[in-house]
Structure formats: structure tokens, C-alpha cells
Amino acid sequence: MPRRRSPVFEHFTCFKDAQGNDKAQCKHCGLQLGANTKNGTSNLRTHVRICKARDGESSHPTSSPLPLPLPQLLELQPSGPGESSDREPAGLDKDEASRDLARMIALHGYDPSVVEDDYFRSFVRRLNPQFEVPSREAIEKMCAGIFRDSWKVLDFSNVYGSGKASLAVGEVKAIQSLQTGQVVYVTSHSIDGHWNLHRVVEHVCVALPVGGYYHVPLLRVPMVALDDAVDHITGYIAYEDQLASSYEFDLFMVAGEMTGHINHLELKNCMEQKRENKIYYSSTFIDHVLHSIARCLLPDPCFANSIFDSVDDYLISLRGTHQELLTQLGLAKLGLLDDPWEYGESWYSCYCCLEIHAQAVPPNSGSYTKQLLHTLWREIYRAIKTVSDSNRPTSNLCLQVLFKVRDVLQSQLSKAPDGAHADNYSGFGNKSVSDVLSEALETVDKAIQDSYLVWSIPLVLDPRYKLRYIKDKFEGAFVSEAEKYVSEVRRKTKELYISYIEAGDEGDSGGIIEVEDMAVDSSNTASAQAWDELDGYLQDSPARQTEGFDILNWWKVHGSVQYPTVARMARDALAMPTCSKLTSDQIAFIKSMLRGYNCWWR
Length: 602
Fold this sequence. Notes:
Number of domains: 5
Mean pLDDT: 75
Strand content: 5-15%
Oligomer: single chain
Distance between the termini: 72 Å
Number of strands: 10
């Protein structure tokens, strides 16, 4: 059967040149391109997407107006009926306008060199010819003051209250320093006495792949060798532990990245050696686990290319900007695919194409494998968005999203084709669909087994679920071993609770006490009350499942009144870091630090 001619050729006139080579001339702009289909049609597709003449801007590439030279642009002044080019708008405060510009640069992490850009200066002059853009030196001085003032506004006694804080250690993928260095951050996560979640950048350093220790006094940013990074970070956390007494908080948990330049096993061991009090430690961010599950589902390159090609052919028929295309495809209203390059993952590129394909063709018209991947990757994508983009990304979400992904994988595995025709439904090379789904399911189960104690505590403290949800999910996932996991969660919850009772009695937020070391005497009033409150919380009816349920508000309004000690646990446990993704404000803050605005930073 002859291969169907690609729709891209509708935009070209094909011919052979004098040497007999296949050529294609664009019908819109006249540009000639190679058209040997043995090498594919990607160059033709690319041209159709970027051809300005196709959008009606011109009929020939030389007919579009040439841009004005820069000097001529700078000489243009605003003019119009009744306007004067030298008139200053009423009420203009030049100093305050300069400070607004500095605030934008300092608090959003922009490069201060923008004030030296000729086009930016031309833009400002068009708005008001009398406003003089500050020099880069002046704007950086203002930025430093604004950065200092924004930090001084933070009331750390309010941020940390009298509770505990969790720390996250990771690498800023969006920022490269000195081209060879990796920016490493430490952020603190805590919930204050008013039940507001705070995520604060505590420390930044640049890790270089060479030996030795470096420091740049001018910028106040430590620069360390990768092999010294763990010692540097551990030393900082130890310092932070001492500093904690000033704000009356203790460390509850430290989270790190599963992959990257920082050896988190070494970091965990160093912390255990340097701390007397026990803390929770997780070597995995939940979003990293979800990405690793998604990567298990990647098809073979040929099948992936077929996904890309089918979408390319469809997009050629559409016009507009990226956002306009999302609107046409019905994806904008779903909040999907806002940034196709957000994760830098191959699976996400495939998922973007499958999502577009799902909007472009009738339901269930794609191949079995395409529909399968679309279903699974969409669930994983939603899980990542849940733990990273939530307004209040509390840690009770982590185990929930893992079990949701597991349920979808298990459901699809039970329906996977088998027998003699199983290979006909695969796009995974030598692997069958069942093999791929089983591998992904094993990845989920291993992640749950490795970190279930860390993430079960905040889930128990979700009043909608408590222990009942954990019991049901573990029985469904691990069957005969479920009771072992549930018993361990129950034991750890009581162990943690006793430590809070003891800390309250002694006025000290000390380390976690092992439950085996504390004999609970029913004649001891404090102990009896302790068990009564915890058991009361666990046995009381769960909170109603409502859309937009606000767990922090529930604990503020209801839980802190009914279960005051359990509420203290919830404040600390729910603040544990959920993912590696920094907010845009945090990235801007780090960029400002790297530019030397942190001269007054503690």
C-alpha cells in the first residue's frame, strides 16, 4: 500500500533542480528547501510553522519592512494632537518610579543590566521622555537595599512559632552559576501559630567540580567543591540547629534529592552523626519518584517518533501563538501543558503530543498503546502538579498521589493484552505491555516501602483519612504484608505523639522517644490523657470529603481545639517538603543572592 503523502506538501511546490535533487518551494514566501523524503519532512514542517508570509504578513520574504536601525529608533519621540514631547505627566515621582523599577528587578530576580539595554531605554523614553533611567550601579545599590528590607520584614519568631521546621536540600536546575557550578539550596518549611505555611530560602552555595574551598566575599556566596558540599551543608544545618533555639524551633525532617550532584546518603549519615535528637530523613522528593515511574513507560524510539509525526501533521493546519494553540485545542481551560519544557523530560514531551492528539481525533481512535500511555502519563502529570503547584502543598498529599498512580497502573495491568497477540499491542520493543506496567508498578511499590513511615504520619493527620485509609490502601497493595506496615505506622504515630506529650510536660521540644522505652501506666494522669486524645482523634468520625478541603484551616478551627497535642504534631508533620520544585519567588530570591544583593542577609 503506498505511503500517504504528508499534508505538509500542500504548502509547497515540488520540483527537481538542475542536478536532479528534490526541491520544494514555499507557496507563501518563495523559499526553496530540500525535499528528499528519505530524510523525513521535519525541515518542511518547521518552515511552515515559522513562515511569517503564511500568516499574511507578506507575499515574498523581501517584501516585509526592514526593522529601523537602532539610532533611528532612539530618536523617535511620542507625538500626537495636543501632546508635547517635553511635558512631564502630572504627579510623577521620579525617585519612587526608580524604586519601583528596582523592586521589580530585585524581587523577581531579573538581571539589572536591563537598564543598560537600548530598547528598554527607548521604551521608557516613549512613555516619558523626561524620566531618566538609573544607571546599573545606582539600580544595584537600590536592589541591595530592597533585598535587605524584604528580609528584615520577615518575623522569624512568627514564621517558626514554637513548632518545628523541616529542611529541603536540592539543586536549582533553572540556574547555572559560572557555567560549571551547580547552585545548591537549603529551604525551611514550617507552619506558624496561625496555620500559615512558610517556605523560606535559608542558604545557597555554589558547588564546583574541582577540589578545594572557595569564597567570594563581594557576593557573600560560598563556593565549595562537590566532594566538600555535603560537609558544607551539614555544617550549615548544624549551625541552623543551634540558631533554632533563638526562634524556639527544632528540626523535624530533612528531605533531599534522589539524584543529582549531592550524595544524600552521605548527607543523611553525616546528620545522624552530628545530631543527638532524631529527625525524619527522606532521600526522595515525591515528584522525583513520579518522574521515575513515568520514565518506565517510555516507548521505543520508533514508536515515540510516530507520536511526534502524527501531531506535527495536525499542527501544520493550525495557526497562532503557543497560547492560542492551547486555546484552540481546548487545553488552556484544563490548565494543561502551560510550559512544554517545564520538566526537561522525554516522557513529558511524548505526553504533550498525546494530549494534543487526544484533542484532535475522535475518542478511542488512537492505537491501544497511545491510549494507554495517555491515560497513565496524565495521571502522573496531575500527581506532579498536585504536589508542586498546590497553593498549600502539604505533605499529606504525597502518599495519596502515589497510591492514586498505583491504582491506575494496577487497573491497566489487569486489562493488558496477553497470549499470542500481546506483541501486536506493544510499542516497547522487546517488552510486552504487561512487562512495562509491571516494572512501573514495582517502582511505585519500592518507593512506598522505602518511605512509607515518613509520608504515613502526615496522612494519618489528615482528618479525612486517618489510619483507615492507610489500612485499606496497604491491604490492597501488599495483601499479606499489609498488617506489618500498618502496625509500624500505628507504632510510629504513638511514638511521635508521646514525644510531644513529654516535650509539653518538660517545656522542651526534645528528641523523639522510643515507644518501647516508655511504660504507659494507666494511673499516670498525663499518660492516660495522652492516649485518650490520640485515640479520640483516630476513632472519631473522619472529616467530610468536600471540594477544596483546606486541611490547615480545619486544624486551625477544629483540630487545635479538640486535639491540641495532635494539632502540634500536625503543624510540624504537614510542613514537610513535598517536592523539589521551587516557587518562582524562591528562584528570584536565589538569583538576587547570586547577584550580591544579600550583603545584609543573615
